[in-house]
Automatic annotation (TrEMBL):
Domain of life, per lineage: Bacteria
Sorted UniProt keywords: Membrane, Transmembrane, Transmembrane helix
Lineage summary: Bacteria, Pseudomonadati, Pseudomonadota, Gammaproteobacteria, Nevskiales
Residue spans crossing the bilayer: 43-62, 74-92
Name of this chain's protein: DUF58 domain-containing protein
Species annotation: Solimonas fluminis
Keyword Membrane on entry: yes
Length: 332
């Protein structure tokens, strides 16, 4: 193991040093519920490649000024050096004393992309510029935003959701290179937030066994205004608008009254045991598809899993409850 570390150090010294420093810093980042303040002791700053080029240019100008004893060259060299020091101060101060909070995270289905909402608070009376938010060592571009004075900026950072269940947020970096891009200042943080990932819905086509010929509505014996149920004899107190006037000439002296009944949804159960030909994850995917299909059809449905039963219902709340149980269910 030690020989392998020595080989990596000799082959890629800068990459090896960066990996060791990142590991040292990451081990000290704790998961917190927020808000997370960013004091001066948690802000790291290094020159960018433009900063190194700027410093090299200043060194060349200094050597040239010394070689030719050029006072104007000295003046310009020291002016650019002072400008670089002021830039370093502003880059560091642009990130100090902001606060990080967790925002809303909407559930997604497996195979989609989860978006974590992170709020950056600026308690200072001056605006902060050019903040970048990103996961460490990710190929996707960072999210950029400015934070108004005594205000809040909302940044949404994406993370692929590959499997169902809870997807915790990782350690992320908040960085800035304002104002001239000569220095890169950043801090690490990890907010206690997670995204609920629903099972990936199966392809449409298969119907629940109990739904064959049963999806729809059935008349009840409850009086209502939905379905015409026939005529009956007039009773004292019946409203005049319910009288069937067309039947009055056929039965003089005995008016008939239109009768209606209320339509009730037939209950449908989506059951784990009805999918015995599938493996556990495929069962959850198929049940997810059925939940979405029944909700689109506005049909009341219930969910039965081993040890879990949700009574029939419909609506966004009932759908979310069913999908949550499917996302967090542990077979066996």
């Amino acid at each position: 193991m030690r020989l392998w570390l020595v080989f990596k150090l000799l082959l890629h010294p800068i990459r090896f040093a960066q990996a060791r420093i990142d590991a040292w810093v990451m081990a000290r980042v704790k998961r917190q519920p927020g808000p997370i303040p960013v004091p001066r002791t948690r802000v790291y700053i290094v020159p960018t490649r433009f900063g190194y080029g700027y410093a090299f240019m200043g060194l060349v100008m200094l050597l040239g000024s010394m070689n030719y004893s050029n006072s104007m060259g000295f003046l310009l060299t020291f002016l650019l050096g002072a400008l670089g020091l002021v830039c370093m101060h502003h880059t560091h101060g642009n990130l100090v004393n902001v606060q990080l909070r967790s925002g809303k995270t909407a559930p997604v289905f497996a195979g989609e992309v989860a978006h974590f909402e992170i709020l950056v608070d600026n308690p200072a009376p001056a605006q902060r510029y050019s903040f970048s938010l990103a996961w460490p060592k990710e190929t996707q571009p960072p999210v950029m935003a400015d934070v108004p004075a005594r205000g809040t900026a909302t940044l949404r950072i994406a993370l692929p959701a590959e499997r169902r269940g809870w997807l915790p947020a990782r350690v992320f970096s908040l960085s800035t290179e304002f104002p001239l891009g000569l220095f890169h200042a950043w801090t690490w943080a990890e907010l206690d937030m997670a995204c609920l990932v629903y099972p990936k819905p199966a392809t449409a086509g298969r119907m629940p066994p109990s739904a064959s010929g049963a999806i729809g509505q059935m008349p009840s014996n409850i009086a209502g205004q939905d379905e015409f149920a026939g005529l009956r004899n007039y009773h004292r107190g019946d409203p005049m608008k319910s009288v069937h006037w067309k039947s009055l000439p056929k039965s003089p002296g005995a008016p008939m009254v239109k009768q209606f009944t209320e339509l009730l949804d037939q209950e449908l159960w989506l059951e784990w045991d009805s999918l015995g030909d599938l493996d556990p994850e495929s069962r959850l995917s198929q049940l997810t598809r059925w939940v979405l299909d029944m909700e689109d059809r506005q049909h009341a449905y219930g969910l039965r899993l081993p040890g879990i039963e949700l009574k029939p219902g419909r609506g966004e709340i009932h759908q979310n409850d069913c999908l949550r149980e499917l996302a967090l269910y542990k077979p066996g």
